[in-house]
Amino acid sequence: AICDSAKRQPFSQCLPDTRVDLPADLRQHVAKGSGKIIWLSGESGCAKSMIAHTLADQLREEGSLAATFFFSRKHVKRNDTDTFFLTIAYQLGLLHPRARGAIGKVIAEDTALLSPEKS
């Protein structure tokens, strides 16, 4: 789901003044513009999703977020990659008019791309 999607799990953001250091470190990494992927890993229940949602919300609020996708084992449409690329393309199209035009052109040439099986 997109970071501000209604399908997000409730309370999927860090409470104020909690886990401050890690999101701050992640924001600093993003600010440096390294272009590298951030991979959060850890045991189930260790707050990876909360940290990722908090970071995404903060970046969205300041206009620094291009796109997000949050996988979920609990939701059939988000537990594999079927809609991943379509979701990212949609968000990039909303954000960047030039990307929107290019994405629209590609889809017009091959409407089968809208099928989740091609994503």
Structure notes:
The longest helix is centred in the middle third of the chain and has 14 residues, at 48-61. The model has no long low-confidence stretch (mean pLDDT 79). The chain has 2 domains: 1-68, no CATH class; 80-119, no CATH class. The chain contains 4 helices and no strands. It has helices at residues 21-32, 48-61, 84-95, 97-109. Keywords: Repeat. Residues 33-113 form the Nephrocystin 3-like N-terminal domain. It holds the Pfam family NPHP3_N. This is Nephrocystin 3-like N-terminal domain-containing protein.
Structural class: mainly alpha
Whole-Å distance between the termini? 15 Å
Indicate the proportion of strand residues.
under 5%
From the spread of the alpha carbons, the general shape counts as globular
List the helices and strands and how they pair.
Blueprint lengths: L20 H12 L15 H14 L22 H12 L1 H13 L10
Quick synopsis:
With 119 residues, this protein is mainly alpha-helical.
Descriptive key words:
119 residues; 2 domains; 4 helices; 0% strand; globular
